[in-house]
Specification:
By secondary structure, this protein is of the alpha/beta class. The protein has 13 helices and 12 strands.
Length: 391
């Protein structure tokens, strides 16, 4: 009888750690690197939110894991206003940002249904959907996307659906900005008895049509996941919520209480202020829209055609000759910009790069100036070589 122990789990390299050489290359420019590799906001949140963080007097005791009544009411009111949903405070539970929900959900669902083992997610998507499945020792099954980067529900194998703990959808999508049919996703989940989890953290940066939530189509069997990281530039505060199916919200809330998943008290107080202020989000939306257009022009000037996304603040740009790492290196070397190769988001994305247009207008202008200077230098070199050959 063999006594050999199984190999210990070794997590894969964190994708963005693979960009360290590119960061060093970009940082060699006068003025340093312009980081467009991750969706980390650079603009400040409103002063009213900062005041609420510092003046809440909520730091002394333990806040409720599910969120204060004020937090839950503000979150529900905000989503109803933005997306036309009809949720109540009881349908909401607070989270420590949204990534912990994405990464932790497979584990919690597996505890509830140990007979199931599969996580379905878009084939081009945020890496944490797949990684969450991996960390829970579940099967990670990517669902193909169409030529508009929308999830193709018809491509889901019935055998995988029968084993599924959940299906993730993400609209607007990261990285490619696709806009899924959330009504169809909700219907698919109900027909197959699979909870559908809709990551909607870019909802207010929807460029094609109105903001959409899966909860517009009822709460049964679905959850929407939201975050203040993007809409209010509060990524460092870690504030978000999930809402939807009453049974799922109750189960997840109870599990999270036991595991100590508690958003900080001052953060919950500041979140109420953030949810109640729409003006700062409207201003931020216009900033991102302008920056996306500006970056599209910058890329066009070097022969890279990037379409405007359906939503989100990322450009999903096809790399010349399909070599995403070559384009990543070129942008770091010539423009001092750090971007992400598309393979980080799925095999199907290997010929693209993702560009997070989150830096200031001045930073984007700096990238444009560097790329233009490189082009001018290249043209001068070609002319000089031609003149020497003719001499």
């Amino acid at each position: 009888m063999s006594t050999e122990l199984p190999a210990p789990y070794v997590p894969p390299p964190y994708p963005y750690d693979r960009l360290i050489p590119m960061r060093e290359l970009a940082a060699s420019h006068d003025g340093g690197a312009v980081d467009l590799s991750i969706g980390s906001p650079s603009d400040p949140p409103p002063a009213s939110i900062i005041r609420a963080l510092s003046e809440s007097n909520a730091e002394r005791g333990y806040p409720p894991s599910i969120g204060t009544p004020e937090f839950r009411e503000a979150a529900a009111t905000w989503l109803n206003s933005v997306a036309g949903t009809s949720i109540e405070a009881a349908d909401v539970a607070a989270t420590v940002g949204s990534k912990e929900v994405v990464a932790g959900m497979p584990h919690w669902l597996k505890l509830r249904r140990p007979d199931l083992d599969t996580i379905l997610f878009p084939a081009i998507s945020y890496p944490s959907y797949e990684m969450g499945a991996d960390l829970a020792n579940c099967r990670a099954v990517p669902v193909p996307v169409d030529d508009q980067w929308r999830i193709n529900l018809d491509a889901i194998d019935p055998a995988d659906a029968a084993r599924a703990l959940c299906l993730w959808v993400n609209t607007p999508g990261n990285p490619a900005g696709g806009i899924d049919d959330l009504e169809a996703a909700a219907a698919w989940g109900r027909a197959n008895g699979v909870p559908v989890l809709s990551d909607e953290c870019y909802i207010e940066f929807t460029w094609q049509g109105k903001p959409r939530s899966i909860l517009e189509h009822g709460n049964d069997g679905v959850l929407a996941v939201h975050s203040l990281s993007k809409r209010s530039n509060l990524a460092g505060a870690r504030a978000g919520f999930f809402a939807g199916d009453a049974d799922l919200v109750y189960y997840l809330s109870e599990v999270r209480k036991h595991s100590g998943m508690i958003p900080a008290g001052p953060v919950q107080s500041a979140s109420v202020v953030a949810f109640q202020d729409q003006t700062h989000v409207d201003d931020q939306r216009e900033l991102y829209r302008r920056r996306l257009t500006r970056m599209i022009d910058i890329l066009a000037n070097i022969g890279v055609e990037a379409p405007m996304p359906g939503g989100g603040f990322y450009l999903w740009a096809p790399a010349p000759d399909g070599d995403a790492w070559a384009l990543t290196e070129r942008l770091a070397r010539d423009g001092g910009a750090v971007v992400s190769p598309g393979e980080f988001y799925g095999v199907q994305g290997a010929g693209h790069v993702r560009i997070a247009v989150v830096q200031s207008d001045a930073a984007l202008d700096l990238v444009a100036e560097r790329l233009a200077a490189t082009q001018r230098s290249s043209v001068r070199g070609l002319r000089s070589g031609a003149e020497q050959r003719l001499a």
